[in-house]
């Protein structure tokens, strides 16, 4: 039984890559742990609760003791209108009955489930990321507040069952060797573009111009590429395409091109603002 309406991404050429909306992209804030009074829950927000993260949320830990890529295991899945990347932090509120059942099961087992991107138009993607529960709180009405951390990527190979919640067999994904590519140089280029985009975006939004901190924070190229993808807030389909790539160099190049397009847009907008200040 195949997962219904799977999205099969075919990455476009770099000339067709989009620029990102400067008002919604590159969100570098960490989520704070949720409390009972928290109002940052995605279910009842007027705006989608896209993933927010910071470089400090990322580490090499999620790459240690990873399952072998040829392993096939059963994994409960949680379709969401967002993309989780390895190493990123994701808060969730669990309120639906079927997912409360899932949480009760997970809290007695290995605390891991699959987060997979889904929307009403495109359906459910076949590639997702494991979310590991690192903090949870069960309320008196049986709702859950969770803090999850992204771990391994996976591809759905078959659906085991759909009731009471979706469970699928998955195979693990790992990036292939990038050959002769200088991944460190690519990662440094991407970081430079990110800093320029943040600087210009702050200027256009009237925020104080200050030196952008070290965004890479000693991350190796692969986890850094996941971090960059996770900051592309408001562009979940582009994030999904980045998640599905199995080549660190290809992911960094795509991110570099998207950031370059965004920087060109911001540069033009900044020039217009300088000439016509009242138009901003």
From TrEMBL:
Residues 235-269 form a coiled coil. Residues 1-21 are annotated as: Disordered. SMART domains: LON (SM00464). Residues 72-263 form the Lon N-terminal domain. It comes from the Eukaryota. It comes from Citrus x changshan-huyou. This is Lon N-terminal domain-containing protein. Residues 12-21 have a biased composition (Low complexity). Keywords: Coiled coil. Gene3D superfamilies: LON domain-like. Transmembrane segments: none annotated. Pfam families: LON_substr_bdg.
